[in-house]
Specification:
35% of the residues lie in helices and 19% in strands. The chain has 145 residues and is α/β, with parallel strands linked by helices. The protein has a 6-stranded mixed sheet, with helices on both faces. Strand 2, helix 2 and strand 3 form a beta-alpha-beta unit. It is globular.
C-alpha cells in the first residue's frame, strides 16, 4: 500500500525550500504519526521531500512510528511517479511531499480526483483509494493512542 502525507502547515517568509513548520504544523505532523500508529499501520520505509517543511513533517510523524525517513529528491517536485518510488521498498511505503504532487499521485494511482489538506493522509492500494483523512480527523484518531 502506498501512503501519502502532505507536509503540515508551514510559516511563510523564508525561501521555499527552507520554510519551517508552524507550531500548528508541528502538532499536526506528530498527530499524523500517532494516528497511523493507532490504526496499527507499520511502514517498511518513509521517503520524504528534502524541503524543510516536508522533512520536518516526516521526522515528527516517523518519530511516532519508530521509523527514520529517507530523503527522496523527486518528492520536492509536483511531478513524481508514486508507484515507481514505492516499487521494491516493501508492502507499506509512506511518501511525504507537497501539493500538487500528492493529489496528482492519488489521481495517477486511482483515477480519483482528490485534494489533500496540509497535514492530510491518503492510502492507496492497487487502484483503490482506501483512506483520505484531514488533520482534524488525524488528531481525533491520535487521541485513541
Amino acid at each position: 500500500m502506498i501512503w501519502l502525507l502532505r507536509h503540515a502547515h508551514a510559516l511563510r517568509g523564508a525561501p521555499d525550500a527552507e520554510r519551517p513548520l508552524s507550531d500548528r504544523g508541528e502538532a499536526d505532523a506528530a498527530a499524523a504519526g500517532r494516528a497511523l500508529a493507532a490504526l496499527g499501520v507499520s511502514f517498511d520505509c518513509c521517503l520524504t521531500s528534502p524541503k524543510v517543511r516536508a522533512l520536518d513533517t516526516a521526522r515528527l510523524a516517523c518519530a511516532e512510528l519508530g521509523l527514520e525517513p529517507e530523503v527522496e529528491r523527486a518528492l520536492a517536485d509536483g511531478d513524481f511517479d508514486a508507484a515507481a518510488l514505492a516499487a521494491g521498498r516493501g508492502e507499506q511505503v509512506l511518501l511525504v511531499g507537497h501539493e500538487p504532487g500528492m493529489s496528482r499521485a492519488i489521481g495517477d494511482l486511482t483515477g480519483a480526483r482528490a485534494e489533500m489538506a496540509k497535514g492530510g493522509v491518503a492510502a492507496v492500494e492497487g487502484r483503490e483509494l482506501k483512506l483520505l483523512l484531514r488533520p482534524a480527523e488525524l488528531r481525533a484518531l491520535a487521541r485513541l493512542r
